[in-house]
């Protein structure tokens, strides 16, 4: 094989990603298939000579076996602790951080006071009160361990080495023991803390939060609004330390060490490799940093030898090491985006740049060009611009498909934004690093002011560009229809067809881009035409509670937004995916978690035309402040038996709210719907409501035998509700659906009177 590490590393990563996508319960089958294929390829003479085929199969089998072993040793023993409360003793093994008023600590446990429990693991603890403890001090506390029912949330935590998550509620029993014998990793963490404190002392809050993210991958000080703007502008990679940041830092430090070593490049490269490893430790060995760090170290070590490192082999080796240490890293979105962007740059970045530059500056013909003098004057900035565009395009080529799969959206202005901020971000990394070093040196601290000022100006510029771009029309295009996977499959099938054409590469590339845009455009238009005369109810899998949205092609109303804390990630994504156009209306039922837990987050993230508020006195301080700041707020009457009315989506919605519960009733194209929160007493509702065709409930209701619905949708787990015992079979039902642990449910009513009830797949239906 020409590039064995690339083949093995890429195969290892791809197999693990596919395994997570198809389901870890099928690992045994995948292993058997890989082993059988390896045996077949080794037996056949042609494939045995071409070692790539058996190598791929053997690598696949090894990756799957290790993934199975990793689950058995590290993951499954911790799953038995979900939902339990235990006294846990362990060391703080990372720098604490704050988010939403809580402080988070990564604890390496030495004892978990539960019979048969795994003793040595890592847990991410949150506390409302900051603990008076240093890193690697021992903490003993009573911990409520969360049930990580949402796979994406669970996978992300495990990829960061947090096999459990929990919170501390009882503070009087906390015991902290100082540890004088600190491990070696304590000192990089101290450097990280000192650098963060230095940045915070030198810059205003917003600027310090951005510089901390760019320099040290600490996004805890960034506001949610800024993070959202960066994502919408297509430059979220700037606040995730990866290859771009490390390459800038490596080149800067290489120049410095070359000067110190008086021009001896080999010695400078060797010292710089050590610095890169130290920087990886300071940042925290995040997957994207480790990937970039390994490649930079291999590049630097290659400078000390005759043979230079091959980029694809280096990338494959980085993927192999990272996925071997923790297979769950393979589904970390930051790592996948960093890996795919780097692969795209390696494959096409240089080729695109060289092709364009050679067209503008041909070696033999340039002097005959009447613009020869002008082209020479602008050669340096023009080549820099071309290189930036080429790198951005090649990185987007492989990272955009991952963004579509994970976020079901993409930012069309990404290329423009990267051109506008690329150079500024590079200079910012340089100035921020110099700024911190000068402060640390003490002696040269008086020289820091120009770098502080320049860092502030560059930060304001980048944040300003992100704000302007994110506020432009179509800054984020959502691809949440079921046409998306069909279009992706069609695009994949189209690629080899186009490659069979004997045209020039750049013409084929342009043709393919045009065809893909046409496919997605046709799919989007077709789906909108098919669903233009329909209204959809979206019922989220939100745990113990009820989240329901009503939407057509241009407007969305949020009727309920409650659920469980551990399902907030799923609910937030589902709400974002389900929102079509403007959010015209939202009901805030009060302080009840089952109906309004996610209301404050929604009020902060979206501009909502009208908010209908009930039980104002029961709201928490944050929700009260947000509802009061809304431009249009209606305060509902909570008198017993009172029914409010509101007109939405060409239908009248009747609202019942009292101490006996809350409910909604409305008709959509001839079918009537009743939606009730958990523990609502149905005997207080009008008889007409109880005869609704569709009954949606947030769980158990009182007097359920009064329901005469033919279709029942329950936002809870099936095992938590005994339908026969609770009386939902009064007149018999045609079907019953649950969200709890099974996924979201979409109900679409069409103008012709048909109603479809479907389990939502990964893309919405």
Low-confidence segments, given as residue ranges, are none
CATH homologous superfamily assignment of the domain at 534-759: Ribonuclease Z/Hydroxyacylglutathione hydrolase-like
Strand order of the largest sheet: 15-14-13-12-11-10-23-24
Q: The CATH topology of the domain at 534-759, please?
A: Metallo-beta-lactamase, Chain A
Strand element count: 24
Oligomer: single chain
Task: Indicate the radius of gyration in whole angstroms.
Answer: 29 Å
Average pLDDT, to the nearest integer? 85
**What structural class do helix, strand and pairing data support?**
alpha/beta
- How many angstroms does the end-to-end distance come to? 44 Å
Strand content: 15-25%
Main sheet attributes: strand count, strand direction, barrel closure: 8 strands, mixed
Question: Can you name the CATH architecture of the domain at 534-759?
Answer: 4-Layer Sandwich
The rough form would be described as globular
Helical amount: 40-55%
CATH class of the domain at 534-759: Alpha Beta
Q: How many distinct helices?
A: 25
Give a written overview of the molecule.
The chain has 765 residues and is α/β, with parallel strands linked by helices. Among the domains are: 4-78; 80-183, OB fold (Dihydrolipoamide Acetyltransferase, E2P) (Beta Barrel); 483-530; 534-759, Ribonuclease Z/Hydroxyacylglutathione hydrolase-like (Metallo-beta-lactamase, Chain A), CATH 3.60.15.10. The strands form four sheets. It has an eight-stranded mixed sheet with strand order 15-14-13-12-11-10-23-24. Strands 16-17-18-19-20-21-22 form a seven-stranded mixed sheet, with no helix packed on it. It is globular. The protein starts with a helix and ends in a 6-residue tail after the last strand. The model has no long low-confidence stretch (mean pLDDT 85).
């Amino acid at each position: 094989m020409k590039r064995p590490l690339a083949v093995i590393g890429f195969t290892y990563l791809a197999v693990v990603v596919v395994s997570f996508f198809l389901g870890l319960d099928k690992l045994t089958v995948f292993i058997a298939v890989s082993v059988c294929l390896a045996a077949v390829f080794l037996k056949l003479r042609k494939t045995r000579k071409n070692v790539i085929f058996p190598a791929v199969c053997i690598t696949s089998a090894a990756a799957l076996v290790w993934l199975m072993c990793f689950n058995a040793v590290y993951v499954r023993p911790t799953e038995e602790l979900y939902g339990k409360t235990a006294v846990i003793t362990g060391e703080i093994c990372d720098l604490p951080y704050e988010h939403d008023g809580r402080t988070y600590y990564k604890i390496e446990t030495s004892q978990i006071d539960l019979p048969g429990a795994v003793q040595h693991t890592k847990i991410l603890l949150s506390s409302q009160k900051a603990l008076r403890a240093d890193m690697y001090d021992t903490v003993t506390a009573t911990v409520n361990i969360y049930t990580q029912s949402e796979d994406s949330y669970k996978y992300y935590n495990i990829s960061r080495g947090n096999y459990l998550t929990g919170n501390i509620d009882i503070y009087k029993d906390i015991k902290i023991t100082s540890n004088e014998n600190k491990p070696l990793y304590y000192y990089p963490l101290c450097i990280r803390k000192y650098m963060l404190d230095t940045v915070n002392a030198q810059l205003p809050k917003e600027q310090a939060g951005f510089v901390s993210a760019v320099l040290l991958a600490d996004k805890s000080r960034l506001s949610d609004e800024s993070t959202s703007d960066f994502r919408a502008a297509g430059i979220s990679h700037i606040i995730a330390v990866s290859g771009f940041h490390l390459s800038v830092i490596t080149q800067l430090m290489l120049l410095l060490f070359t000067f110190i070593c008086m021009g001896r490049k080999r010695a400078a490269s060797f010292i710089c490799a050590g610095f890169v490893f130290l920087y990886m430790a300071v940042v925290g060995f995040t997957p994207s940093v480790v990937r970039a760090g390994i490649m930079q170290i291999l590049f630097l070590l290659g400078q000390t030898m005759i043979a230079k490192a091959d980029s694809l082999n280096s990338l494959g080796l980085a993927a192999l090491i990272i996925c071997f240490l923790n297979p769950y890293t393979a589904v970390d979105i930051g790592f996948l985006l960093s890996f795919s962007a780097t692969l795209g740059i390696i494959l096409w970045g240089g080729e695109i740049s060289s092709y364009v530059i050679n067209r503008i500056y041909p070696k033999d013909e340039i002097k005959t060009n009447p613009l020869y003098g002008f082209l020479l004057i602008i050669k340096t900035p023009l080549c820099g611009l071309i290189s930036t565009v080429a790198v951005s395009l090649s990185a987007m080529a492989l990272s955009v498909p991952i963004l579509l799969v994970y976020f079901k959206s993409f930012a069309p202005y990404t290329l423009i934004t990267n051109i506008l901020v690329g150079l500024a971000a590079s200079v910012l990394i340089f100035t921020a690093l110099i700024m911190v070093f000068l402060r640390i040196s003490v002696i040269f601290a008086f020289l820091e002011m120009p770098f502080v000022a320049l860092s502030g100006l560059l930060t304001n510029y980048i944040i300003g560009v992100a704000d302007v771009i994110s506020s432009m029309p179509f800054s984020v295009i959502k691809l949440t229809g079921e046409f998306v996977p069909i279009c992706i499959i069609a695009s994949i099938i189209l690629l080899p067809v186009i490659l069979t054409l004997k045209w020039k590469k750049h013409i084929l590339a342009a043709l393919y881009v045009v065809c893909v845009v046409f496919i997605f455009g046709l799919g989007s238009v077709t789906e909108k035409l098919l669903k233009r005369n329909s209204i959809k109810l979206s019922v989220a899998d939100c745990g113990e509670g009820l989240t329901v949205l009503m939407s057509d092609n241009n407007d969305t109303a949020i009727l309920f937004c409650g659920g469980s804390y551990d399902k907030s990630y799923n609910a937030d994504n589902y709400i974002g995916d389900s929102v079509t156009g403007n959010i015209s209306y939202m009901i805030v039922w009060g302080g009840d978690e089952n109906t309004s837990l996610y209301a404050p987050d929604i009020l902060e993230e979206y501009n909502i035309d009208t908010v209908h508020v009930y039980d104002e006195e029961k709201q928490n301080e944050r929700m009260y402040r947000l509802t009061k700041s809304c431009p249009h707020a209606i305060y509902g009457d909570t008198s017993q038996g009172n029914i409010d009315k509101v007109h939405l989506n060409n239908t009248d919605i009747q609202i019942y709210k009292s101490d006996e519960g809350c409910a909604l009733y409305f008709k959509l194209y001839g079918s009537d719907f009743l939606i009730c929160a958990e523990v609502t007493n149905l005997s207080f509702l009008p008889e007409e409501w109880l005869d609704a065709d569709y009954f949606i409930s947030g769980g158990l209701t009182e007097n359920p035998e009064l329901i005469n619905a033919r279709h029942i949708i329950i936002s809870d787990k099936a095992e938590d509700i005994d339908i026969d015992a609770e009386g939902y079979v009064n007149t018999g039902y045609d079907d019953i659906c649950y969200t709890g642990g099974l996924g979201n449910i979409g109900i679409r009513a069409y103008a012709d009177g048909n109603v479809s009830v479907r389990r939502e797949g990964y893309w919405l239906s």
